[in-house]
Amino acid sequence: MNNIESLDVSKFLPHRAPFLMIDKMLSVDENHVITAFKIQPDCIFINDGVFNEVGLVENAAQTCSAIVGKSYFDDDDVEGHGTKLIGFISAIKKVTIHGSPLVGQTLISKANLISRFDTDHYSICTIECVISASDKELLSCEMNLFIQELNA
């Protein structure tokens, strides 16, 4: 996918507001992804001006799903018309939370594919992710995701 930053990320993830925790993909390929998310005051994961731990885990899961999800779309499908996907966390192997960001901060999430198993109907993958804001690491985790293409 060329010019990845100009894509409407909501067309490539099954999530919608208020549950969409990625504003843009900064970089993505078969093994890595980097996303950005600016925390807004009306975000559902805000408690007393702080983005909570559940929001961090959800941001990590949505970031991680972009790696495998990308493979279901053609490189020239910049509108996300090619397919519809569903995905969920099947296991969180480990998670360490070092801190919570504040409203107005931008999360930078970086994920790497560890392993992937594909069938004709779904993919199961293990991915590690690190989330930071203002150059401070907030979360590191390893999780399994299940991603399936839906029939139109």
The CATH architecture name reads Roll
Shape: globular
Instruction: Figure out the total of helices.
Output: 1
Number of domains: 1
Order of helices and strands: EEEEHEEEE
Low-confidence stretches: none
- Distance between the first and last residues' Cα: 23 Å
Average pLDDT, rounded to a whole number, is 85
Please report the total strand number as a whole number: 8
Q: Round the Cα radius of gyration to an integer and report it.
A: 15 Å
User: Biggest sheet, open or closed, and with what strands and sense?
Assistant: 6 strands, antiparallel
Question: What structural class do the secondary elements suggest?
Answer: mainly beta
Side-by-side strand order of the widest sheet:
1-2-6-7-8-5
CATH homology superfamily: Hotdog Thioesterase
The CATH class is identified as Alpha Beta
Strand content: over 45%
What is the CATH fold-level name? Thiol Ester Dehydrase, Chain A
The helix fraction, in percent, is: 10-25%
Structure description:
This is ABC transporter permease. The protein is mainly beta. The chain has a single domain, classed as Hotdog Thioesterase (Thiol Ester Dehydrase, Chain A), CATH 3.10.129.10. It contains one helix and eight strands. The strands form two sheets. Strands 1-2-6-7-8-5 form a six-stranded antiparallel beta sheet, covered by helices on one side. The chain has a two-stranded antiparallel ribbon with strand order 3-4. The two termini are 23 Å apart.
What's the arrangement of secondary structure elements?
Blueprint: E1 24-28, E2 32-38, E3 46-47, E4 50-51, H1 53-70, E5 84-97, E6 106-118, E7 122-133, E8 136-150
Antiparallel strand pairs: 1-2, 2-6, 3-4, 5-8, 6-7, 7-8
